[in-house]
Please model this.
Amino acid sequence: MSGVAPSTPPELLGSRRSRLLGRLRPSGLLIAAASTILVFGTIGYVIVTSPGWPRVQQSFFSGEQFLNSLPIIAVALWKNIQLFLLAEVFILALALALAVMRSLPGPAFFPFRLTAVAYIDLFRGVPSILVIFLLGFGIPGLRVPGLTTDPFVWGLLALVLVWSAYVAEVYRAGIEAIHPSQEAAARSLGLSRAQGLRFVVLPQAVRRVIPPLLNDFIGLQKDTALVSFIGLIEVFRRTQLEAGNFNFTPYLACGFLFLVMTIPLARLVDWLAARDRRRYLAGVAR
Model:
């Protein structure tokens, strides 16, 4: 019918409200509240009526110990934030270079593709803690004159090497998602292959992969705690020191601080993914 704008089917759009709360109808809210109270109430009842609960409560849920250790542990968190921010800068650059190398066409670029594939397979296949140990203990053990033995530097390098392999695959997925016609259009306008990649393909690819990139950086935030195993006094190592009297409440304080860092970033990922989905469905509806 003329004059009627096409619309996207409701089954594609889904609810415009948060899927966590359903459609937010009154009856739905009551059912959600009742089921939540039932499930978590049952779990809580089983825990607090267990024979070992008094000992667990004393060892893990001491309010006084939590409040005393939280400020001390929070100060040590700054070291993790430094690791995360520095590593992120280097990872974004190295991973993009690896993704571009792996995407280069033609037999002349085979050595570059082979190098990128070997790097990605190696550091995705080796556990992060093993790389941290090898660099943190192995390189300083060589006693090369002028070479630093600072665990911060070697922990940072290990995180960059490992996570660049993961992020490179995210970039590569974004590059391969760009239709070849985009590059062909750039070439028809007189741009070289390198210029087409730089000004046409990469900007679109990077925009598409922002949500999965942020997901990877949530994992990177948590992996900064692994550097404690080579002697760096960061938040996890400080937590171990605070829990030296066999009270494990400081570990809850450490987990709380990581949640404060990661949950906002996780919600940002959800918002970006939902925004991209709405834009895609709006384009389909036109």
Notes: Residues 1-18 have pLDDT under 50 and may be disordered. The CA atoms of residues 45 and 176 lie 52 Å apart.
